[in-house]
Structures are given as C-alpha cells and as structure tokens.
Write a structure and sequence with these properties.
UspA domain-containing protein; alpha/beta; Rossmann fold; two-stranded antiparallel ribbon; 289 residues; ten-stranded mixed beta sheet; elongated; single chain; 2 domains
C-alpha cells in the first residue's frame, strides 16, 4: 500500500498554501493525500464560543475547506482527512511516521510561523524521521512554474543518501533538472593528515577532491534515475550561503539535517536553519539516518 503525503492544516492561508503544494505533489507522484488537523488551538478565523460542539464544528470546517481546496481540478486524487485530539507536535509527528512526507505551511522569514508557533516547528522538523516540506505562503512570492530541484550534498555518500533520494525522486516526478550542490572550505591545519594529503594529491587538489566526492555520492542515484539531468555544482564558501544562492529560481530545495537535542528542544543544524528562514522556494528537510 502506497504511503500518503500528509499535510497539516489549521485554517490559515499558510496551511492552505501547504495543501495546494501537497495536493499537487500527491498528484505528480500518484500518491494519496492525508489532511491532518489537530485543533489544540483555535482556528484563527473561527471564534470558539460554544464549548466542545463549537470546536468540533470549527475543526470540521477547517478540514472541509482543505479537502475542497485539494480536490479542485484533481478528481483522481485520493483524499482522506483526520481531526486528531492531540498536542499538535505529537499529532504531526504521528502523521509523519507513516507518510511519504509531511507538508507544513510557512510565513515570511520564519520556518513555520502561522502554522506552528516558536519551538513547535523546530521540534517537528528535528524529530520527524521522514522528510518535512515547508511551503511559503502565497503572499511571499509566487513559486516558479518551472525550475531546478536543488539539493545540498554534504559529508559522505551515506550521510547525504536520504536527501539525494528525495531530490532525485522529486526531479523525476517533475521532469526537472537536478542541481547537486557541494560547498567546501579550506580544512584546518590539524586535518592535513598523511592520508588526507595522499587523497588530495591523487585527486589533483582540494577542489577536484570535492568534485570526486560529489560524483561518487551521486553515482548510485544517477543509475537509479537515468532520465534525470544532473548539474554538479561545487563551490567554495559557507554551505548555507552557497545553497541559498543556487536556489534562486528553483522550485524546490532539499537539505539534510542532523538534529541535536538541548534543554530547550531540538536544533536542526545551521544549513537547514538557513534554508528554512531564507530560501525563496519550498524546502524539504530530510533526516540523516
């Protein structure tokens, strides 16, 4: 049974933008769409004045509006919905656990403002084991109808496997070019071990060594997705800045994250953080297994 694409809704314009993106993605991939609403807070445009019955009606209205939005122009799309009486983080993590991906709405320069407040969004992205896609509200800037799928490749081939898998599948579904970006910087002096120097010498220098690492990481995915056109992009500089520059005009940016946990909650890493705050397009965040 195919896993659905899950989308969280709360009745806001930002979450409806997420519904639009998720429904389009589900249709592209021929997957079911699952709409999830956790009415732990009140939908902003529906005052709750009559107790539990009013809250139930408000929740049903939120879901019905999202269903109608998703079904518009997509009669073949299989849509299900659920109102979950849980904390929003728990409800969304539960939905993500069995989904192909989880889609959330985003507003302005914050990662999930207008859908989840403060640390909630970071917690969902930091803890979800499947990809989480953050979609900007339509009031920010219109997404391009065509453009590359951009993916950041960091570390080893194993480290970047989940991000590359998601990006290649997304590019294949769209018939889009995939731009694989590897940013690098000069290593500190203590990193110049004999083995490192040998590998660098064999590759012909530091940048050729980085290009070799990117090429090797892409090889199995190119074999699996032979029809996807790939552009290899290796550039010296901060990974966040290089990726953001490369994502100008893109229709999707895919990044990996390595979550760290602190007393105030999960941290998703500087690259994912920069992408979620500043990328001009939807951002998919995948976990390193």
């Amino acid at each position: 049974m195919a896993r659905a694409i899950a989308v969280g809704v709360d009745g806001s314009p930002e979450s409806l933008a997420a519904v639009d993106w998720a429904a389009h993605e589900a249709a592209l991939r021929r997957l079911p769409l699952r709409i999830v609403h956790a009415p732990w807070w009140e939908p902003r445009d529906v005052p709750v004045t009559g107790g539990g019955d009013a809250l139930s009606r408000a929740a049903e209205a939120v879901v019905a509006k999202a269903e109608a939005r998703a079904a518009e122009g997509r009669p073949e799309l299989e849509i299900s919905s659920e109102v979950v009486a849980e904390d929003p983080v728990d409800a969304l993590l539960g939905a993500a656990r069995t989904a192909e991906m989880l889609v959330l709405g985003s507003k302005g320069q914050g990662p999930v403002l207008g859908f989840l407040l403060g640390s909630y969004g970071r917690q969902v992205i930091a803890e979800a084991r499947h990809p989480v896609v953050s979609v900007r509200s339509p009031g920010d800037r219109p997404p391009p109808r065509a453009g590359e799928v951009v993916v950041g490749q960091q570390g080893s081939a194993e480290d970047s496997g989940p991000a590359l898998a998601f990006a290649f599948a997304a590019a294949a579904a769209r018939g889009a070019t995939l731009r694989a970006v590897r940013a690098w910087s000069l290593p500190p002096l203590h990193a110049y071990s004999p083995e490192f120097l040998r590998l660098t010498d064999e590759a012909g220098g530091l940048e050729p060594l980085e290009r070799k690492s990117l090429r090797e990481a892409l090889a199995p995915w190119r074999e699996k997705f032979p029809d996807v056109r790939v552009v290899e992009h290796v550039e010296i500089g901060s990974a966040g800045q290089v990726l953001l520059a490369a994502s100008t005009g893109a229709q999707l940016l895919v990044v990996g994250r390595r979550a760290r946990y602190t007393p105030i909650g999960g941290r998703i890493g500087s690259v994912a953080h920069a992408a979620l705050h500043h990328a001009p397009c939807p951002v998919a965040v995948t976990s390193h297994h």
